[in-house]
Specification:
two-stranded antiparallel ribbon, 10 strands, about 15% strand, single chain
């Protein structure tokens, strides 16, 4: 089994590296740039950021300071909830582009389905058609919200980036996205807080059997479910370990053992929580 990072086909004919580096809650230049430097050196070619994270500038700097060509790195950013509307979305996208120091973006997502997302989607479609964004998608959209985009838009989202880990497996949404030709991208793929799957005894038994880390077992599980996965780490060894998930596999019984851990437990907000979505429109980001 090869250890190359696969690229998955998107519904518009483009491709996306299945493994990427996430930089949520990486709040300073040194950690952001180091993690990206280590990731690129380890063979990652996919970086996931967002306006809300407050680190787009450092992401752009890290890529420019590397010996990897810009066109060889797939970079995603996201439109935060405080920005809605056609003109407002275009302005926010340009701000993201300026912070990154790029003249195009590989993928742009609506971060959450806060009210007004259809106007923002229309702006993103026009930016996509103009070549400023190579791929457009959404994040944290449930089936009803996705149906709204599909019914009112002219461009199908290429991905839906949703919270997914062994304790929240999103099987129904996974099947729905697959039926629509939209890729499932997993954020918080290892869980977090009280839902941290890294300490689960089943996961650790599998890790011992394969002589890999618990994180590698979970990431491999995501990969075999044909999900895109974007683990975060600011530790060089873990960045490298998280990349080394393509030289081993889990058998059917092992996949089922992890499937049986599903408990419907979230780490982050619920996209069905209309009160939270409205409240989230009142603040602009972590910085």
């Amino acid at each position: 089994m090869h250890n190359d990072i696969p690229e998955l086909p998107l519904n518009n004919g483009n491709r996306i590296p299945q493994l990427g580096l996430g930089v949520f809650q990486v709040d300073n230049a040194e950690d952001t740039k180091n993690s990206i430097k280590w990731a690129l050196a380890a063979g990652y070619r996919h970086i996931d950021t967002a306006a809300y994270y407050g680190n787009e500038q450092w992401v752009g700097e890290a890529i420019r300071e590397s010996d990897v060509k810009r066109e060889d790195v797939f970079v995603t950013s996201k439109l935060w909830n405080s920005v809605r509307g056609y003109d407002e979305t275009k302005a926010a996208f340009q701000e993201t582009l300026d912070k990154l120091g790029f003249d195009y973006l590989d993928m742009y997502l609506i971060h959450w389905p806060a009210p007004g997302y259809l106007d923002s989607w229309r702006a993103m479609e026009d930016l996509y058609k103009a070549g400023k964004i190579k791929n457009i998608g959404v994040s944290n959209f449930n089936q009803k919200q996705m149906e709204d985009i599909l019914a009112n838009g002219t461009v199908k989202p290429v991905v839906d980036q949703i919270e997914t880990h062994p304790y929240l497996q999103q099987d129904e949404m996974h099947a729905y996205l697959e039926s629509k030709g939209i890729l499932h991208e997993a954020w918080s793929p290892l869980g977090g807080g009280s839902n941290n799957a890294l300490t689960d005894p089943v996961i650790n038994e599998l890790a011992a059997a394969h002589d890999v880390s618990a994180a590698q077992i979970i990431l491999r599980w995501h990969v075999q479910r044909e999900e895109i996965v974007i683990p975060k780490s600011i530790h060089e060894e873990r960045v490298q370990q998280n990349r080394d998930i393509f030289a081993f596999g889990l058998d059917e019984d092992e996949m089922k053992a992890i499937a049986d851990l599903d408990a419907g437990k979230r780490v982050g907000p619920n996209p069905d929580d209309e009160e939270w979505l409205k409240k989230s429109q009142t603040y602009s980001g972590r910085k």
